[in-house]
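Hi L.,

You mentioned the student needs an example of a multi-chain input paired with its predicted structure. This one should do, with 785 residues in total across all chains.
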Amino acid sequence: MTEATGHVVEARGVSKWFGETTALDAVDFTVTPGVVHGLLGPNGAGKTTLLSALFGLVLPDEGTLRLFGRTRAEAGPGWLDGVAGFVETPRFYPYLSGRRNLAVLAGLDGGDAAALIDQALERTGLAGARGRKVKGYSLGMRQRLGLAAAMLRRPRLLILDEPTNGMDPAGIRDLRTALRQLARDGVTVVLSSHNMTQVEEICDAVTVLHRGKIAFAGRLDAMRADAPDPVWRLRTGDDGAALEQARRSAGVKAERHDDGGLVVFAAQDPMDEYVLTLARDGVAIRGLELDVTPLESLFFQLTGEAGQPGETRQTPAGLFIPPARPDNVPVTEEVP
Amino acid sequence: MSRRLAAGAATAVITLLTLTASGCGSTGLTAPRLQTSLSSTFANLYVLQQTEQGNPKPSAASLKSQASCQKGGTPDIPQDGSGAWLCQITYLVAGPGYPVIAKYNVDVQTDGCYAADGDGPASVNGSPTIIGPHYAQLINPLSLIDGCFDTT
Amino acid sequence: MTLAADQWPAYAEPAAGPAGPSDPRQRSGTLVVWRLELAKLRGQWRVRAIALMCLVGPFVIVAGLNVQSATPGDTAFGQWVHTSGFAIPMVILGFGGQWLLPVGTAVVAGDIFSSEDHFGTWKTILTRSRSRGELFAGKFLAALTFATATMVLLIITDLLAGLLAGTQPVVGLGGQLVTASHATELVVVSWLSVIPPVLGFTALAIFTSVASRNSAVGIGVPVVLTLAFQVVTLIALPAWGQQVLLSTPFTAWHGFWEQPAYVGPFLYGLLTSAVWFTLCSAAAWLVFRRRTIGGAS
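Structure written out for the whole complex:
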């Protein structure tokens, strides 16, 4: 792709100020080809500003930005060729139908984009609503239309800002599959989120942004190695005995939770060992779920946004997804 | 943003206009220009009037029409600019001719166009209509004269 | 409603060549934008309303003049409307030209940029294959096209309405009788002469639309300015002060109907219109070129 560095996206020392506010502070941001790259941070961290800068919607005050190895000045009008996506909620002409909106955008793109419209609508599940005016679309439908609009461009770099906003769980699952598939076919995806769990499931690499600065950048496996132990919620037939057993088990820390049951801090292997031991000792396991994933813990540490592990219910709204997601993560351990 | 811009634009326009309004320079609306235009337009329209009334057609040049205009009807104010002017047009009729004086109240506009309202003699410009052939009522071209002159 | 996830990769054929566009740019981007904007304009009710007014307006006026004997006073050619049809287009131009034409163009030009702000769609169209320059130029061109097309339509219908009312010779502003063929020329040339200031107002409305990001301001400021010019015109300005105003070129056509005809005001008006046009377009582009799109903060 990029002859010089091999990066699809390469931002060096990018800063942006809005009046007194520093939105981006000397940000270095690189994305390698064919990965799904998560841009993570709490609300207001500067994610949207950075993505807007990639699209040229916001012009950085300092630093250089390259897409496929070319700066905006070098690339000229072709700067966004092969790049698609959206920032913030996708917006369309409300007085036109979904299909007409895509036709306008395809007209701007030229080429065979217009021929892809119906496919795109079908594949984003909007075929039934194609004739309806966009003003009647729900947030989730607009997100889908945004995806459809992006697909018309046959992107090699797909930039999505909080694409799961307003989507139902099924939609999120489908999106995940689709993005993984795109990545396998060589499309590079950059997506922003304030939700570590989602990023963890979809992304290969991640950049954590906090107050306009890079807090972490690297591959997800490298991040996992740095991450603290996950946090588990455990309910047993005899919490006292379970606490006692935790004290004897290496790599396991447990304490009582205010709402009953235990909060256990342990990596996967010691946790397996601990649970098996409890079972052998005749302590019934009534419930076990992953409360905070290791990366979530790390994310909270990096951004300083959350409370202590085990108290995630008290974290600011939106930072944490309630654990009602059986298909997302292995939340139950096999208990013999 | 928009308010500041609007305010800025308004200030700029007002400043510019105040400067121009108070500034030096002629309006270009001068007595000689008005006189030249009015006398020649009058001559043309006199010819038209005579033709329409079925009289022999004089030539405009033979009238030797000459206008004399004063702003406000007095020489005491600057003889320049838009507003009310009083004009007298002297012209010669028929053959060796004798001079006739036609009077007009002229309203001069800033763009160099004027409307000259006939103020006598009644037989020439007093009546808005004239009688044409077969007793047809026609507009008297000399009653109200619209004309313009170059101010640049 | 689900995302048919497994079918997506059909799109993801990596384009051949290094950073090549996914499609070759067959046409100039500006023209692409221009065509799309014209299509959008055609769908707007106000554009249709203006077109309809241009189409039937002159005929309605002729019909109105036919049923009453009074003549519109206080304007050149006013007393001749019942004598010759050629007086009618000139009365319309003298009466309505200075404010009706600027308002007509501002209604479209003052909205063509800010409507994207209103719908939040700048980011949608700026993330396609067209640069800011192309979008700016295409939209600008579309507004100019609308203004010019409307003027041409109005010239045609005005002339037709006039011819319909009568082709007798008309009394010119020099008192001379103007024959039908020459009068036809003068009507057309007079109307053509106001196109430059109309385009000046178009650029002005585009600037206010870009700067304010608000259609009410974008349309309102040029309209208010039109009225302000009218008021200011009443003040005794020096000749050059009068020439600075964008309303003055609307009266330059009077010289064409004089004997001898003069074109000084028209040439100065051309200069005035060009200066306004250039300043407003340049200012609009400067504001638009580096603006931050969206609520990124």
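You could point out the following to them. The first strand of chain B starts at residue 66 and ends at 71. The helical segments of chain B are 2-22, 31-52, 122-126.

Best wishes,
N.
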